[in-house]
């Protein structure tokens, strides 16, 4: 028997044209884009459909764009009768998961993730922070290299991929140490700030103020938190963990393992691209993975999960 979880992508999954096909064929897609435009006060739909790519890459634009497209993909799946037993999202994707859990309204979320992106961008002067992916090295050894250099583990993505974050020189030094320790590859990421590190503390403080202004309800479906890799449903806990998430590592590998240990055997990546699908394959080769971002992937997913 299939036991489903929906997972939602984070920053880096954006691309020009995302959401266009589903919003053209499903009224809910058109509606959500209109609601996002109204809530934000600018034409997010046009940026998603037409770009320019450089604008779409700006953190304060990327975050509401990916969130809105993920919400559209979720609503289309819901219309088709696909129901998850658990939800999770990678960093920004956790906000999409909370939308799917009906814990926070669409309008509040699209505004919050826009501000979250802005706060994260402004927390650290441009060019002073960096992030890098370390591949093919034991997680503990990556953490050691980061600690020795003054960097931090930011995303524990899979047993063979850890992203580190911190000041530019600290990340460069950690990459060198990781290589010396046997890492297969180290790649500096094209990001605008050192996300999920202690350097994001000013962003967490500003986000806390904004989260206190909106209504957060208990989640209707359990959401696995990035911070704890455990389920959260209570409204007060959701707020606390969203604030901590800004400066804490994303425990993605442990989150997938937690759901799999509870019998989840099918994951649907809900939103643009297939970044999470690749990570999940490296975490648990026994689970089935689908993604939904356009009509073709929707059809394949429905055929697989509704049999």
Concise synopsis of the structure shown:
This protein has 307 residues and is an alpha/beta fold. The protein contains 14 helices and 10 strands.
Count of extended strands: 10
Low-confidence segments, given as residue ranges, are none
Determine the structural class based on helices, strands and strand pairing: alpha/beta
Strand order of the largest sheet: 8-7-2-1-9-10
Count of all domains: 2
Taken from the alpha-carbon principal axes, the silhouette is: globular
Question: Could you tell me the mean pLDDT?
Answer: 97
**Major sheet attributes:** 6 strands, mixed
Count, helices? 14
> Which bin fits the share of residues in helices?
40-55%
The separation of the N and C termini measures 10 Å
Order of H and E elements: EHHHHHEHHEHEEHEHEEHHEHEH
What is the CATH architecture assignment of the largest domain? 3-Layer(aba) Sandwich
Q: Rg to the nearest angstrom?
A: 18 Å
Multimeric organization = single chain
CATH topology of the largest domain: Malonyl-Coenzyme A Acyl Carrier Protein, domain 2
CATH superfamily caption of the largest domain: Malonyl-Coenzyme A Acyl Carrier Protein, domain 2
CATH class assignment of the largest domain? Alpha Beta
Strand content: 15-25%
